[in-house]
Amino acid sequence: MANTQAQNDESRTLILTGASRGIGHATVKRFSSAGWRVITCSRHAFPENCPWAAGPEDHIQVDLADPADTLRAVGEMRGRLKDGKLHALVNNAGISPKGSVSTGMSGRAGATAADDAQASRLDTLATSMEAWRQVFEVNFFSTIWLAQGLRAELAAAQGAIVNVTSIAGGRVHPFAGSAYATSKAALAALTREMAADFGPLGVRVNAIAPGEIDTAILSPGTEKIVETIPLRRLGLPEEVAKAIYYLCTEQSSYVTGAELHINGGQHV
């Protein structure tokens, strides 16, 4: 009880990858509104139209597809944690390459909705070796490098890690490519392994698996999937952000190694 009270009283810090849009934006808003300091990370520089005031000072540009750059960013993150404590690490970054008749491949990190509209699903027969490696480095391996590099700071705060998986990690999805889906399935398994390893340090590790969430990168045809979802609607980024917040706070103090499905009942 005393430890929980101490966490409530101190200023808390979140490091969030994949903060440039959608679920990432909603997560920044949710934590910021609760008084957290949020250090955002994305492949792009901080955009001037982002909705949080401290953004430029608390943004780290990093290419998670490059292990060397990821490790460089870890050093910068540690340097910004002046009290040596990190209360939450949310691994939200993810890429899902798609095939295109005109370009060969699109839909990578930073692609627009228009790009995805012209793209097709890359299956195991069509995905290149380069794409497989890039997807796994961003969606899977970077999670390990960040957690290893920030281990001491997470332990000092008795913090939490949340990995963002996907409904595509548990079944073949009509739009998500094979590399994306298998990387998310691997991330779900990694979450269990990390929960076992980080638990003795007082650090909880959980995952959330979003279904069809209303963001700018939805693929054409998603409306057909919505017709089969028990709640008959898309999820909202804000609803995902609330679940992430729950898993990072004392409200879930005895929850670790879990994967929370946020999909309106799509998996039933």
Give an overview in words.
- The strands form two sheets. The protein has a seven-stranded parallel β-sheet, sandwiched between helices. A two-stranded antiparallel sheet has the order 5-6.
- The protein has helices spanning 2-9, 23-33, 67-80, 113-117, 129-149, 151-157, 178-198, 222-226, 237-248, and strands spanning 13-17, 37-42, 59-61, 88-91, 98-99, 120-121, 160-164, 204-210, 259-262.
- Residues 101-118 have low confidence and may be disordered.
- The protein is globular and about 50 Å long.
- By secondary structure, it is of the alpha/beta class.
- The protein is built from nine helices and nine strands.
Which spans of ≥5 residues are poorly predicted at pLDDT below 50?
101-118
The tally of helices reads: 9
Q: Beta-strand level of the residues, as a percent range?
A: 5-15%
Number of strands: 9
What is the N-to-C order of secondary-structure elements (H for helix, E for strand)? HEHEEHEEHEHHEHEHHE
Oligomer: single chain
Give the helix/strand layout.
Layout: H1 2-9, E1 13-17, H2 23-33, E2 37-42, E3 59-61, H3 67-80, E4 88-91, E5 98-99, H4 113-117, E6 120-121, H5 129-149, H6 151-157, E7 160-164, H7 178-198, E8 204-210, H8 222-226, H9 237-248, E9 259-262
Parallel strand pairs: 1-2, 1-4, 2-3, 4-7, 7-8, 8-9
Antiparallel strand pairs: 5-6
Features:
268 residues, alpha/beta, 7-stranded parallel beta sheet, 9 helices
Concise overview:
By secondary structure, this protein is of the alpha/beta class. It is built from nine helices and nine strands.
